[in-house]
Amino acid sequence: xxxxxxxxxxxxxxxxxxxxxxxxxxxxxxxxxxxxxxxxxxxxxxxxxxxxxxxxxxxxxxxxxxxxxxxxxxxxxxxxxxxxxxxxxxxxxxxxxxxxxxxxxxxxxxxxxxxxxxxxxxxxxxxxxxxxxxxxxxxxxxxxxxxxxxxxxxxxxxxxxxxxxxxxxxxxxxxxxxxxxxxxxxxxxxxxxxxxxxxxxxxxxxxxxxxxxxxxxxxxxxxxxxxxxxxxxxxxxxxxxxxxxxxxxxxxxxxxxxxxxxxxxxxxxxxxxxxxxxxxxxxxxxxxxxxxxxxxxxxxxxxxxxxxxxxxxxxxxxxxxxxxxxxxxxxxxxxxxxxxxxxxxxxxxxxxxxxxxxxxxxxxxxxxxxxxxxxxxxxxxxxxxxxxxxxxxxxxxxxxxxxxxxxxxxxxx
Length: 413
What we know:
12 helices; 413 residues; elongated; alpha+beta
């Protein structure tokens, strides 16, 4: 393939900001949570763009959208490429969206250049990657890969008691296609880094070799509600104190397994959440991650032992439940090499990366050869309305994606 082939960076940048007009946030980002009316509007715009580019759009029973550019060989396995259009409640314009619209731009550019490929190219918008409205994240790709069952996914509820199945039906994106029936030659995903390494080192491209494994442990501590002013310190059974000490424990465990391990408490609920009542109950989720399964297991064991010891010392009841998990991911060597070679061929500076976040590619890696491309984001900020990338970063990432995908799809002629 000629190394001078490039996507249209201006068109990609314009598409990103057109999509951002749907489900606007309060300060420049987006609130386009999965299966909401805003998500439906974004999906319809994406479908119009795909059809205008000559692609047929299929939808499976989880609402995942597959837009196909035909290849010259009807029997050749397709190359899939994409990400997700749903956002966090206070999300940015690029998380996930860059991967979907960068994939669309590949097809648009191939059309402009009148380039044909042997293998079909399929642009994908996976349903509910974020997992904000309906936990867990990466839901549709998880069903596709056989990690979750369809019925289980349909019955997941949001905070208002609405289910995934009902909301797919309501917004008109509950397709007929069986989930996971498609076979893939390979899958590629472009994403912003969501971390500070590429920008700090002045690198254009992250070649993602591995993905961190993840454990989410929900902890419930039960103490005794009592007046903050009249209860002597030695007579308190403070659930909030237990959460504070476990928070410190989580930080300590992660630091003991530096540099790649991380841990934090991001979600917590305090009851009764009154200024002058000692908390009688807290529910919170511990997020621990590492690219090494042995390290993940050791961290989880230390959390289990340490949290129970803390609860016992304070006199608290404790319940611990794993509510999210995936093992560390090693991406396909050939696909990773295709990404690395594309970056070198195009003259972009690059480095290997371990993805600290979960992505649909992490599940699809179980059923097809998979790799990821990353571009920098300002200050590593993501899941935040202030998330920012440059047009040049987006273009570089999409160009590398373009070459890796088209090389794998095999140019004809």
